[in-house]
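FAQ

Q: What does a record look like?
A: Structure on top, sequence underneath. For example:
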């Protein structure tokens, strides 16, 4: 019984360690800023609040950047409204720019 308890405890600990992201796995918001500055800043502004002049010219409403990681990734990869997909942002760059977008809300 004691051995079984230890095995279950060790198994649970291994699963928790595997599921919890470490700093090495986490997206890099600093690297995401460089991508954001190159690909997003013109329309979405330095602080993510949008560029009123571009919004007016495109006849679109300025909206807050997406709230969830999945929402932001979907808009970047699939586009939304008049925003076209940004195919050149993928993989680690996509994760990094999403991390940067989320850092703007803090």
């Amino acid at each position: 019984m004691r051995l079984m308890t230890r095995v279950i405890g060790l198994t649970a600990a291994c699963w928790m360690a595997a599921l919890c992201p470490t700093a090495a796995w986490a997206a890099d918001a600093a690297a995401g800023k460089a991508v954001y500055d190159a690909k997003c800043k013109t329309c979405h502004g330095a602080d993510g609040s949008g560029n009123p002049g571009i919004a007016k010219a495109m006849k679109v409403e300025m909206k807050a950047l997406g709230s969830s990681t999945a929402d932001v990734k979907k808009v970047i990869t699939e586009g939304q409204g008049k925003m076209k997909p940004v195919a050149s942002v993928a993989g680690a760059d996509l994760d990094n720019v999403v991390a940067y977008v989320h850092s703007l809300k803090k």
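Q: Is there anything notable about this one?
A: The longest helix spans residues 2-19.
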